[in-house]
Amino acid sequence: MAVKTKPIRLFTADEAPLNLLAQVEGRSKAEILHAALVEYVHNHRRELSGVFGEAQRALAAGDLDGLTRLLSSDAERRADLLADEIAKLR
């Protein structure tokens, strides 16, 4: 897989576990984060597909106002819901 270096911000509390996982697995931190992202998308595909499906329908219909509403208020609400789900996992 091609790698593009770009810094990301990590919570301080996540740095040590990420380093430990990378060492134990014999993988890079980027590989660990990528695997976590793949697993997250897989586990939340229903919620995510709903958001993407609504956006696709608005685009197909040329409904820019609807797309704008979706990407602003509704997306924020959905992001909050997903953040709540993530918080439950901690």
Taking all Cα atoms into account, the compactness measure Rg is: 17 Å
pLDDT averaged residue by residue: 85
Low-confidence stretches: none
- N-to-C series of helices and strands: HHHH
In percent, how helical is the residue content? over 70%
User: Helix/strand-derived class?
Assistant: mainly alpha
Report on the biggest sheet. Answer: none
Descriptive notes:
The protein starts with 11 loop residues before the first helix and ends with a helix. The protein is built from four helices and no strands. The radius of gyration is 17 Å and the shape is elongated. The model has no long low-confidence stretch (mean pLDDT 85). With 90 residues, it is mainly α. The protein has a domain of 52 residues. The longest helix is centred in the C-terminal third of the chain and has 26 residues. Helix 1 packs across helix 2 and helix 3 runs antiparallel to helix 4. Helix content is 80%, strand content 0%.
